[in-house]
């Protein structure tokens, strides 16, 4: 008996619906992980714009980005 047959035999012997649900979720997650994610047009456009920014040198250093985020958070919290 091969592994697949052993698994099927064990699953067929299970009566607990909770365990069967967990098995189904595990199998479903594995199947979903195998197929690549398809970008929608908005996501693809955003990525293309970001890549164009990088290619044109429109980027921030980590320190600059941290400063911009801190400033934005301060403004949003009313701290000006």
Q: What can you see in these coordinates?
A:
The chain has helices spanning 3-12, 17-34, 41-55, 62-76. By secondary structure, the protein is an all-alpha fold. The chain has 2 domains: 3-34, no CATH class; 41-76, no CATH class. This is Addiction module component.
Global morphology: elongated
Overall pLDDT level? 90
End-to-end span in angstroms?
70 Å
Low-confidence stretches: none
- How many domains in all? 2
The helix count comes to 4
Structural class: mainly alpha
Q: What is the helix fraction of residues, given as a range?
A: over 70%
Q: Roughly how many Å is the radius of gyration?
A: 25 Å
Number of strands: 0
- What pattern of helices and strands is seen along the backbone? HHHH
Sheet of most strands: none
**Strand coverage percent:** under 5%
Could you write a compact summary of the structure shown?
This protein is mostly helical. The chain is built from four helices and no strands.
Note the main attributes of this structure.
single chain, 80 residues, mainly alpha, 4 helices, elongated, Addiction module component
List the helices and strands and how they pair.
Layout: H1 3-12, H2 17-34, H3 41-55, H4 62-76
Organism: Owenweeksia hongkongensis (strain DSM 17368 / CIP 108786 / JCM 12287 / NRRL B-23963 / UST20020801)
Protein name: Addiction module component
